[in-house]
Amino acid sequence: MRKSLLALTFILPATAVLAQSPEDAVEARQGYFEMLGAQMAVLGPMAQGKIDFDATKAQIAADNIAALAKVNVAPLFMEGTSTDDMADTKAKPEIWSNMELFGEKATAFHEAAAEMPAAAGSLETLQPAVGKLGGTCKGCHDEFRAK
Amino acid sequence: MKTRVVKVWDPVVRSFHWLLVLAFAAAWGLGEWGPNQMTWHFYFGYTVGALVVIRLIWGFVGTRNARFANFLYGPGKVVDYLRHLPDRSPSNWVGHNPLGGWSVLAMLGLLIVQVVTGLTADPKDYINVGPLAGYVPESFSVDLAPQIHEVVSTLLLIVVVIHIGAIVFYKRWKGENLVKPMITGKKEVEEE
């Protein structure tokens, strides 16, 4: 578990550094959100009672979210990779024209993600934490993710 | 001028109308300005869906003026009605007029699209996933459904504005109160 997390924190920045072409950046970016999504795919349904609560699985997903939130994704959002520039992305140009708001949305996500590990122990604490975390997904998608 | 009072709208139609006003306004407002956790938007959306289903059934088995067969007129009648629309006199129409009938169908159609795309949308935030999103292809739930839901929300707003505009037009221009019949069920029309 610790090993895999450790590997994760190394691999991701490495990918980011390697992302030189816009296509690479978009691919890495989408990979990053896929990884976030994979954790949320465990936590969301658990919090909503669609699947049974499993403390071990919840803890892994919560720890992964917190770790992923620590990744500096700035290189993944390289200039010239918005929906204006490329077909295969949903990143709106507003990300770059309104970096300040984008940063606020990112901070909200970071804060909610940081609370996840401590909240994963019981369903009662997990539910509001997932609600808050998912809310930060929506909050950013509304502004910066093309439909 | 002699007038008589006729029953136009049965209690089902009236209840449907005003409950729809409440549920739609709540769902629309919550969708636009509500909290990121959209639980209440979902509940009001379900309510809209249930109301529309009831209205569709009532459109086949309900009272005379509620049935689709009786208020969806052919193009000739619609054109005829449109010709008299600018007149500064009440239409005295009992039930949905030839123009209003089609607008009812348009509104119901848009609401059906909105409810279906809401139920199947997956906006990828993992907390506001439509309950039926898992039963449709991902290309639909992730891309198409949220897109359509967004566009139709605007279309519905436009339709509501037109609807209210028409009510005001009938009152101010034609001197015909269409709100009262929707509350009391009764309409005062001029004798032939």
Automatic annotation (TrEMBL), chain A:
It comes from the Bacteria. InterPro entries: Cyt_c/b562, Cyt_c_II, Cyt_c_prime, Cyt_c_prime_subgr. Keywords: Electron transport, Heme, Iron, Metal-binding, Signal, Transport. Residues 1-19 form the signal peptide. PROSITE patterns: CYTCII (PS51009). This is Cytochrome C. It comes from Thioclava marina.
